[in-house]
Write a structure and sequence with these properties.
With 244 residues, this protein is an alpha/beta fold. Helices cover 37% and strands 27% of the residues. The strands form two sheets. A six-stranded mixed β-sheet has the order 6-7-8-3-9-10, with helices on both faces. Helix 3 packs across helix 4, helix 3 packs parallel to helix 6 and helix 4 packs across helix 6. The longest helix has 14 residues. The model has no long low-confidence stretch (mean pLDDT 95).
């Protein structure tokens, strides 16, 4: 089942044409890895999926993006960003407690008391962090290690019960052990939701992805299973990128 479908998506920043006619289907309950050289449009495409360009002065998006068959521009942005969570390159916990970080989104929708406690607990468990923080939920989240902070940010996104989780190089600032924890978590979460992952690590793409999409100069040049794209690429741009 296709969870997200992008058709002929273009993104402009002012006069700069950054993303050029990208069409990509993202299956549910799977990991799609976006790879390619720096500045090729991977993160731009990722941010288009939950309308983050709405917040950028001078940015324009053309084309069609559907979430579960619905046009994402036909729904309120707040609803979209609940359904399409985002985890950034560097962990960005809020300056508040571990509990308050995870509770932040649900509490904005009026959830309180035992239901809020359950959401926080379940989200931390899904993010493989509960056992490490259960006895210090009211400690400052910024005191956590980098890897724990990133998993906390994932828990914060999961608290909104998203259909899709976008991850923009989530391991680039982490050590190998924390990277392994995030990859294991990704493998677990894809049983429930669609994940779109930007990565510069071909090993990570091979280990975690069900589908790899290769970007070059703002265009999508090749898609397929990791074994095919990484071992038997057909696009000249992919061959050149993998040879670097």
């Amino acid at each position: 089942m296709i969870k997200v479908k992008a058709e002929d998506v273009h993104v402009h920043y002012g006069q700069t044409h950054v993303l050029k006619g990208v069409s990509l289907a993202i299956p549910d309950r799977s990991v799609t890895a976006l790879i390619g050289p720096s500045g090729c449009g991977k993160s731009t495409f990722l941010r288009a999926l939950n309308r983050m360009h709405d917040l950028v002065h001078g940015a324009r998006v053309r084309g069609k993006i559907q979430l579960g068959g619905q046009d994402i521009y036909a729904m309120p942005p707040e609803e979209l960003r609940c359904r399409v969570g985002m985890v950034f390159q560097r962990p960005n916990p809020f300056a508040m407690s571990i509990f308050a970080n995870v509770a932040f989104g649900p509490s904005l929708f009026g959830i309180r008391g035992g239901e809020l406690d359950r959401i926080v607990r379940d989200s931390l468990r899904r993010a493989a962090l509960w056992e490490e923080v259960r006895n210090r939920l009211h400690a400052d989240a910024r005191a956590l290690s980098g890897g724990q902070q990133q998993r906390l940010c994932i828990a914060r996104a999961l608290a909104m019960e998203p259909d899709v989780l976008l991850m923009d190089e989530p391991c680039s600032a982490l050590d190998p052990a924390s990277t392994q924890a995030i990859e294991d978590l990704t493998e677990s979460l894809k049983r429930e939701i669609a994940i779109v992952l930007v990565t510069h690590s071909m090993g990570q793409a091979r280990r975690t992805a069900d589908q790899v999409a290769v970007f070059h100069a703002g265009r999508l040049v090749e898609t397929g299973p990791p074994g095919q794209v990484l071992d038997r690429p057909t696009a000249p741009e992919t061959v050149e990128f993998l040879a670097q």
